[in-house]
Amino acid sequence: MRVIVSGATGFLGNRLCAFLQENGHEVIGLGRNVDKGRHLEARGTRFVSVDVSASPSESMLKKLGHADVFVHAAGLSSAWGSRATFLQANVAGTRHALTMARAAGVRRFVFISSPSVTFRFSDQADLREDTHLPIPVNAYAESKQIAERDVLAASDLSPIILRPRAIYGRGDVALLPRLIRAAEKGPLPFLRGGRASTNLTYVDDVVRGIVCAMDAPQEIAGRTYNIAGDEALPLRLIIESAAARAGIKVRWRAIPWPLALGAARLAEAVALLRPDKPEPVMTAYALGTLAFTQTLDISAAQREIGFKPQIRFEQGLHRTFGGGLTP
């Protein structure tokens, strides 16, 4: 199978390219990081330096050639940023990826979205894919909601949308490293009695989900699937376990939820007034992920495309840190 992977120089895309290459597929990796692109080429992946947020040229489209599947894993993922930046990266970028996929004549377009599209400031356990989408919590979630609609409208590409929850693993620079840095700086907010839980998903399990979507029958087209580990873990356990691997003892400070949210909103407002609009120490969205349970029902992916997570948290944590103190 010939597969095009956008975001190939990112955490997930890089791992996906390696897996596909190891399993006999021909892979074309798209990305902006030329140095990481050289590493991909050394493994046998054909690398094309491209920013998918920019409109593709005719010459670039011809360079891609024919492919069977397009996996769109590129995008901007952050709790903070301007709306225009998110729309360019995640909405325009997805539309350009759809254009590339059509030019390559693919039979299946797999879009990596985000569970943030379903986020609410309330406990949500075992969320299903058909849950009514709320007003977006931030510009990132808004951009992913719009991109999902665009992908589903591309029925000619037999699209499938995946929403992987909290991807982690060795090489991740966002999830666990970010939590560890926050714990190192000072006490973390202890909210609503520390009862929030979530799923984590080891990166190799996300790759398995993508492969399941690639191989799914045509009648599955147009569906959206949650991808996650099958453990609902207390956030306190996740943070303390990761920090312990880094040799850090987590300190907690109990703060009433309304007070914490008000402080985060104020910090966001102040940041927006500054010329450089720096990310606040704690955004309202990030605070909400610490305060409320957000777990996913993965039964549809298990039943319809054969997805089965294999890496449990303790095993994934060991693989992430590899016996060392940093992921």
Automatic annotation (TrEMBL):
Record-linked Gene3D superfamilies: NAD(P)-binding Rossmann-like Domain (3.40.50.720)
One Pfam family cited in the UniProt record for this chain: Epimerase
Ranges for domain NAD-dependent epimerase/dehydratase: 3-228
Record SUPFAM superfamilies: NAD(P)-binding Rossmann-fold domains
PANTHER family documented for this protein: BIFUNCTIONAL POLYMYXIN RESISTANCE PROTEIN ARNA, DEHYDROGENASE
Protein name per Swiss-Prot or TrEMBL: NAD-dependent epimerase/dehydratase family
